[in-house]
Design brief:
heterodimer, A: 112 residues, mainly beta, six-stranded mixed beta sheet, 11 strands, globular, B: 117 residues, seven-stranded mixed beta sheet
Chain lengths: 112, 117
């Protein structure tokens, strides 16, 4: 059983603050890393797919980096807004196909 | 294009009963995966189907089963329900096997919330 860990478990930030969180995974079992955003009462929504060591992806104020050698990915949110409040999940694809292992998520609350 | 559709949205059952959940993937998507989410747990992988065949299975007992039809729609069945089966069950679809299969993000439905009394 693969261990995909996310930290912190939850986070409260003020509107306008920048924040980041971590996803750690076994570096020996890597095909791809996915980030998802899951807002309350909605379904998880894909943010990024990352495949190469050193990958950096960006979508608006959200960006992510990947280090496959040491087994971690960071997600950054610049200038957090209340609409960024959600649980952010990372998922490791370790064997091709779609067998992915999800982390337990980081729950972000942005306070206006 | 319509998203992933799961039915029913809510379900209440009692211990010992069995239940069938349904998932219609995005049109053109051939791969369907199922996940269970319980309080305090992340999304736990149940199984993945494409071309009507189960390709991967998570660590769940044999009471959990599934199938996929020729139109890519999928069902999962849980027999002899236990209190611990109370959870949100999510279905996700993706286009299907290509050389970049592991890179494909999954598109999730809204889930079926199953409560066992």
């Amino acid at each position: 059983i693969l261990n995909v860990e996310q930290s912190p478990q939850s986070l409260h930030v003020q509107e306008g603050d920048s924040t980041n969180f971590t996803c750690s995974f076994p570096s020996s079992n890597f095909y791809a890393l996915h980030w998802y955003r899951w807002e309350t009462a909605k379904s998880p929504e894909a943010l990024f797919v990352m495949t190469l060591n050193g990958d950096e992806k960006k979508k608006g104020r959200i960006s992510a980096t990947l280090n496959t050698k040491e087994g971690y990915s960071y997600l950054y949110i610049k200038g957090s807004q209340p609409e960024d409040s959600a649980t952010y999940l990372c998922a490791l694809n370790s064997g091709g196909y779609q067998k992915v292992t999800f982390g337990t998520g980081t729950k972000l609350q942005v306070i206006p | 294009k319509a998203g992933v559709t799961q039915t029913p949205r809510y379900l209440i059952k009692t211990r010992g009963q069995q239940v069938t959940l349904s998932c219609s993937p995005i049109s053109g998507h051939r791969s369907v995966s199922w996940y269970q989410q319980t309080p305090g747990q992340g999304l736990q992988f149940l199984f993945e189907y494409f071309s009507e065949t189960q390709r991967n299975k998570g660590n769940f007992p044999g009471r959990f089963s599934g199938r996929q039809f020729s139109n890519s729609r999928s069902e999962m069945n849980v027999s002899t329900l236990e209190l611990g089966d109370s959870a949100l069950y999510l279905c996700a679809s993706s286009p299907g096997p290509t050389e970049t299969y592991s890179n494909q993000p999954q598109h999730f439905g809204d889930g079926t919330r199953l409560s066992i009394l």
